[in-house]
Amino acid sequence: MISPLLSNYAPADLSFDKGEGAYLFGNDGRRYLDFFAGIAVTSLGHAHPKITEALSKQASNLMHISNLFRIPGQEELAKKLVDNTFADAAYFCNSGAEANECGLKMIRKYFSTNGQPERYRVIAFENSFHGRTLATIAAAGQDKLLEGFGPPMDGFDHVPVGDIEAVKQAITPETAGVLIEPILGEGGIQVVEPEFLRQLRKLCDEEGLLLMFDEIQTGMGRTGKLFAYEHLGIAPDIMSSAKALGNGFPVGACLAVEKVAVCMTVGSHGSTYGGNPLAMAVAGAVVDIMTEDGFMERVQQTGNHLRQALHGVVDRYPSVIEELRGVGLHLGLKCKVENGALIQTLIKHGVLTAKGGDNVVRLLPPLIIDEAQINEFITALEQACEELSS
Ligand SMILES: *Cc1c(COP(=O)(O)O)cnc(C)c1O
């Protein structure tokens, strides 16, 4: 049996024995160009030697100890993240949804600690995606995520992205914060206007609200900066990270400014695995590689090159692709044909991409792709468009 979602995404009988850089080797004996990176996760490519080394070295020493003892790797990774972001402190967990849960708890705890426990509500945006836990599906503002799971968790008010007046009107004496993805990833690579994000920052400052960015998909180099907020000239108070942070090893982080972080006192939150030595070794290696001189410049150049080539294809096949969206290597093709059809045709031509909302095909290649791989992708895309337009 093929599940409906999987059949839209890739044939369920396709699996992979091995990955190497931007390629995956299928059990059908074929080599595939990986343009979805496990949903923006394996951003340094498969089997990156430095990641494999960090993982195997740590695994041969100590994998897990729990947070009952100090974990030096946590202190090191927290310092690296703090040094490279707006944040003053980091908390570690195992997934994106957990990182968002931590951020949402931080928003509530901040006001509770500061004598305003009645302020607990968060303004979030329609058509967002924040994970699959009960709090994060309630935060997302999509009925399809809530369907079948009883009354949604209380504490979220939804408004349309880009409508600053609607945000203002949604603020009540119970409002504590605003949560937004700088680019709605699952929603179909919907780039939020930078000006809207700056207006949110200003509004939060005026109203004394906390601003939280979900950078689980946009972060860790995807847009050509370590985090997408760096493009904006403003910063959030709280930010979640996961996906590419571990390049495939499950790890998440919630970062915060000091005034918020200090409210999370001993015992207020926790996780058995969160920040274990293995996760810290791998994520530490990822951050080291991504903060090397020239790494982000190269991602930006690669993104420019790919987007330029894609514009050409969009222009030539308007009956297949309506629009190119995105920033850096966080890209989407809004389709005229059914997005699943383009994905399936691309698979035939040896390229793997991912489905997104709003009939979008998401292009999330590893950040390390080279010119030859971009050309290989463009050739496959042209062939697929040729087939679908005839
Ligand atoms: C993937 C994603 C999540 C959820 O992360 P999980 O690791 O699947 O829990 C949350 N928010 C955004 C923006 C994401 O892209």
Describe the fold and architecture.
The chain is globular and about 65 Å long. The strands form 4 sheets. A 7-stranded mixed sheet has the order 4-12-11-10-7-5-6, sandwiched between helices. Strands 1-2-3-15 form a 4-stranded mixed sheet. The chain has a 4-stranded antiparallel sheet with strand order 13-14-17-16, with helices on one face. Helix 4 runs parallel beside helix 11 (277-290) and helix 12 runs parallel beside helix 14. The protein is α/β, with parallel strands linked by helices and 390 residues long. It has 14 helices and 17 strands. The protein has 2 domains: 16-34 and 294-389, Aspartate Aminotransferase, domain 1 (Alpha-Beta Complex); 50-290, Aspartate Aminotransferase, domain 2. A hairpin with a 4-residue loop joins strand 2 (23-26) and strand 3. Residues 95-97, 100, 129-131, 181, 185-186, 214, 216-217, 242-243 line the site of pyridoxal-5'-phosphate.
Please give the alpha-carbon distance between the first and last residues.
31 Å
CATH class of the largest domain: Alpha Beta
Number of strands: 17
Task: Provide the structure class.
Answer: alpha/beta
Q: What fraction strand? A: 15-25%
State mean pLDDT (0 to 100 scale): 96
Largest sheet: 7 strands, mixed
The portion of residues assigned to helices is: 25-40%
How many discrete structural domains?
2
Strand order of the largest sheet: 4-12-11-10-7-5-6
The radius of gyration is 21 Å
Shape: globular
